[in-house]
UniProtKB/TrEMBL annotation:
<comment type="similarity">
    <text>Belongs to the alpha-carbonic anhydrase family.</text>
</comment>
<dbReference type="Pfam" id="PF00194">
    <property type="entry name" value="Carb_anhydrase"/>
</dbReference>
<dbReference type="InterPro" id="IPR018338">
    <property type="entry name" value="Carbonic_anhydrase_a-class_CS"/>
</dbReference>
<dbReference type="InterPro" id="IPR001148">
    <property type="entry name" value="CA_dom"/>
</dbReference>
<comment type="function">
    <text>Reversible hydration of carbon dioxide.</text>
</comment>
<feature type="domain" description="Alpha-carbonic anhydrase">
    <location>
        <begin position="37"/>
        <end position="263"/>
    </location>
</feature>
<keyword id="KW-0479">Metal-binding</keyword>
<keyword id="KW-0862">Zinc</keyword>
<dbReference type="InterPro" id="IPR036398">
    <property type="entry name" value="CA_dom_sf"/>
</dbReference>
<keyword id="KW-0456">Lyase</keyword>
<dbReference type="InterPro" id="IPR041891">
    <property type="entry name" value="Alpha_CA_prokaryot-like"/>
</dbReference>
<protein>
    <recommendedName>
        <fullName>Carbonic anhydrase</fullName>
        <ecNumber>4.2.1.1</ecNumber>
    </recommendedName>
</protein>
<dbReference type="InterPro" id="IPR023561">
    <property type="entry name" value="Carbonic_anhydrase_a-class"/>
</dbReference>
Amino acid sequence: MNSKITLLIFGFLITAISCKKETKETHSNNTHHENAKHWSYSGETSPEHWLEIEKNSDCDGNHQSPINIIHKDVNSLDSKGDLKILYTPTTRISEVENNGHSIQFDFEEGDSINYKNETYHLKQIHFHEPSEHKINGVIYPIEMHLVHVSKTGKITVLGILGEEGEESQLFEFFESFLPLKNGVTKDINHDIDLSSLFSTEKHYYSYNGSLTTPPCTEGVNWVVFKEPIILSITEVLKLKNNMPINNYRNEQPLNDREVKLNY
């Protein structure tokens, strides 16, 4: 009888110790998870704190984006041939996702641009409201970023500002896949003609900058079009309601960089 009681007590102690260890490990893992911060646009993880969160990023670099483009200070060049838009009517969108920072449309390889004699393929389009770039201090209701990547990994982003006016068929198409909850991805596999974005002659500013989201990688070619596109206030609000409020990064110092106006 005594031996049975001893075994029962021993078994109870082993179980108690195991449970305590498991509870401690679970608490440790939960604490680690809670302490792991991810960047956002507000509060303790807003752009002002990105450098603290992204330790090995370029977010404190000297060539950051976005910037305020002051027209009187730019260097005007007759160099519009530096940019060739090679979009076709059969570009295929593979999917759309709400990544918690923006609405992003991902593309299969097809559309491309040629910038300064190098080819860059369109990878994705996403949106910021209000705009990240300013022209003469003016903030636009929306900014569209068309992200292109070369075979060597170099990045060129076309920034297109938007102002409110008439309805846009292109944005009606984009928004036909909304609403989309945070973290959700939806397959599209549909052709789209983006050439309407460049149907009229446009002038553009160019400068060397960075990604406007962590890790804020520098060495990005920026092409920001001077003339905005037009979309309705309803279309602006529909995008806004599917994204974080004010999903833009603050204006960054120009430092020693040159901004060019290409015409």
